[in-house]
Design goal:
The chain has 197 residues and is mainly α. It is built from 13 helices and no strands.
Length: 197
């Protein structure tokens, strides 16, 4: 990836390969330490409208964000901002699902939640859920993200202000047969109620 940063085929395949090997916990720290995060972020920057690169890159960042040690690499190098930029530039449901999943993985510390809020992450998730209201995976990952964002009082209020409650309730009605979505959506509504008042 570093040798051919302008080749979209190399970057696509490199991001897909990193996403594949990042599934294994033992590979995650090696990827982060060996400049894998930097390579992914560079691919995202060089190909902002390439859905395959953006989706795979978000998936890599999300997988590396499961553990606090590798998450530090992602946040320090600009992974939150890159994820949100991918959600803006591509806008495909697959990129939005991967983006919401990555934000969910990153939203485990108050500091990260505040950065996501400051970068308009709440707006982007709510907007994505409104735009693709029939996409079940996006609705689920959106509910998960909003649930975690609403862990802090200030951000819970922003979720309400951006219309987050309404999109969550809409997802619950639209996908009433999905037990997983209903649980995550109800947990999100409970967090919003608890922290926004």
């Amino acid at each position: 990836m570093r040798a051919l940063p302008e080749d979209p085929v190399v970057q696509t395949n490199g991001c897909r390969l990193l996403a594949h090997i990042a599934v294994n916990d033992s590979n995650q720290l090696a990827i982060a330490k060996e400049c894998g995060v930097k390579a992914v972020l560079m691919a995202m920057k060089n190909f902002p409208c390439d859905s395959a690169i953006q989706e795979s890159s978000c998936r890599v960042l999300g997988l590396l964000s499961y553990h606090s040690e590798t998450q530090q690499y992602v946040t320090r190098l600009g992974g939150i901002e890159a994820t949100l930029a991918a959600m803006d530039s591509c806008g495909s449901p697959e990129v939005l699902v991967s983006g919401c999943s990555t934000l969910t993985c990153l939203a485990v510390t108050e500091k990260n939640i505040d950065r996501i809020r400051d970068e308009k992450g709440v707006e982007r998730v709510v907007s994505a859920m409104k735009k693709f209201e029939d996409h079940s995976d996006l609705q689920l990952t959106g509910c998960l993200a909003l649930k975690l964002f609403a862990e802090t009082k200030e951000v819970a209020k922003q979720v309400v202000a951006e219309g987050g409650e309404a999109v969550i309730r809409s997802a619950m009605k639209r996908f009433s047969e999905s037990a997983e979505l209903l649980k995550e959506a109800q947990d999100a509504l409970d967090n919003i109620k608890k922290h926004s008042t």
